[in-house]
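User: structure tokens for this one?
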Amino acid sequence: MTNKPAPKVLVVDDEESILELLKYNLEKEGYDVRTAQNGQAGVDTAKKFHPDLVLLDIMMPKMDGVEACRQLRALPELAGTYIVFLTARGEEYSEVAAFDVGADDYILKPIKPRALMSRIGALFRRDSAKKSTTTQIKAGDLLIDRASYTVRHKDRDIYLPKKEFELLFFLAQNPNKVFSRDDLLQKIWGTDVYVLSRTVDVHIRKVREKVGEETIATVKGVGYKFNL
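Assistant:
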């Protein structure tokens, strides 16, 4: 992590012992770390700190993690921020709720620090690899710019959370090619993250609402494609 600013990580959890454990291990890996003990404090801190990654519990006082994630994803300045849930909630509906509001990963407690550091490192390495390739796509009236995580349609700027943006960018890079849900899960979420297939449908629906229903077509029984 030399010669460039250390990635910034915000840890939000109401358990002091968890905060101390994660802060110690993250700082040992060279990350710039801040902590918060409830969802509201996490959102307030993120607005000032602009983290590259947020580690977020679900069950917390004042504001739970799902609502905190929803509010973080509504902030354009955090469009490129990863949000990873660290929680003891193993129910499928909790996981679905987390991905529906824009989570990048969902990890169950108890936390294994070495495994967690490895997954965080993989997120940042994948991000660096993406940034080293094409950064801008012009498709009809759409201009999709990865460098600034912005989408422009004619004279209108459109805000997309990170995973919605990555999904649109990937499909636009491969116009008229059909990708199955499994293809998109692997390309956008990666093989080291378990995500339900309906998460792809939710993200496609949200992208369509913002950039136009006609932009991404459904190929019945197969998957999705970007229309050009």
